Amino acid sequence: MKIDGSQIVSGLKKELAQKVVFLRRRNITPHLAVILIDNDPSSLAYIRQKEKMASELGVKFSNYQIAGSLNSKKELINLIHKLNKDKTVHGIIIQRPVPIDISRRELNKLVIPKKDIDGFHPKSPFTPPVAKALLVILEWVFKSKRAIYKKTFLSWLKKQKILIIGRGETGGKPIAKTFKKMGIPYSVAHSQTKNLNELCLKADIIISCVGKPNIVRHNMVANKTTVIGVGLHLEKGKLQPDYNQKKIGEKAEYYTPVPKGVGPVNVACLFENLLKAV
After folding, report:
1. CB atoms near residue 101 (< 10 Å)
2. d(Cα 153, Cα 149) in Å, to the nearest integer?
3. Percent of the chain having pLDDT more than 70?
4. Do 115 and 85 touch, CB atoms closer than 8 A?
5. 231, 261 Cβ separation under 8 angstroms
6. Cα–Cα distance between 231 and 240 in angstroms, integer?
7. Quick one: 134 and 252 in the same domain?
8. Gap between the Cα atoms of 249 and 224, Å rounded
9. 10: helix, coil or strand?
10. Domain assignment of residue 3, yes or no
11. What pLDDT was estimated at residue 147?
């Protein structure tokens, strides 16, 4: 069964819109600033989604683009310092990946914690939106099975065999970190994992965060499995998940498509963090 991310977040979007109306009546306009270095196709797609939802919710959206050059790091740091001090800006996002020479540790600490709605700063009070999105999607799956599993969502999730493929900073890592914090057991596979087929076949839930084609093949998936595609790659001018959607759709019990899969849920969870930052 295809998981429709747009449908899942329709209720959440209505709640967020109501909160924005309440804030604007108090002369507070939530303001999101997004910084993009260069023009990665996946990043541009996510920024378009964010800008579209900002418009729908009545949130101010500022998009800053920095060209990849020798001065990019200095320009990025100066811009973030300025936005950190700007009281009208409530949330700041540095769109990953960042193709400049800067350490991950330095990059993660550039945005002050109270504006780091992506959850990268070690002291950020926010759960990473991608991890929140996974929980929202999995809760939808649970609710569709509740007649079978008469448990709470969290107790059900803790009993599932969860496999996270990839450990990148924008996908696998924040998801794994959030699950660990919540006491949700999981396994991680990566490029050096030799028994990926076996791990996939045993998994109840596969979360693929790589961003390359055919990481998960239909013969690696059982008919009980939920497959969630976080990683994206460009194929014939279109963004695709880590698997062939048609073949996985014929085999898996549930799967997220592209578009209208994880993306809209991720963006809605980001704006939920933004409104908490106001």
Report:
1. 8
2. 9
3. 98
4. no
5. no
6. 8
7. yes
8. 12
9. helix
10. no
11. 62
Q: 45 is in which domain, residue-wise?
A: 19-115
pLDDT digits (tens, 9 = 90+) for 79-121: 999 999 999 999 999 999 898 889 999 999 999 999 999 999 9
Q: Are residues 62 and 137 in the same domain?
A: no
Separation CA 256–CA 235 (nearest Å): 17
Specify the CATH number for the domain of residue 88.
Answer: 3.40.50.10860
CA angle 159, 190, 46 (to 5 degrees): 85
User: Whole-angstrom Cα distance, residue 224 to residue 220?
Assistant: 12
Residue 98 is inside which H or E element, if any?
none
Q: Identify whether 143 is part of a domain.
A: yes
In this structure, is residue 11 part of a structural domain? no
Q: First vs last Cα of the chain: how many Å apart? A: 37
Query: Is 247 found in the same domain as 158?
Result: yes
pTM over 0.90: yes
CA max distance for the chain: 58
How far lies 114's CA from each of 10, 78, 130, 278, in Å? 27, 18, 18, 9
Same domain, 134 and 257: yes
Q: How far apart are CA 220 and CA 66, in angstroms?
A: 41
pLDDT digits (tens, 9 = 90+) for 131-163: 999 999 999 999 988 766 678 999 999 999 999
Q: Pick the closest to residue 257 from 228, 221, 236, 226 (CA basis).
A: 228
Reading the block at residue 129, the tokens are: 């939106």
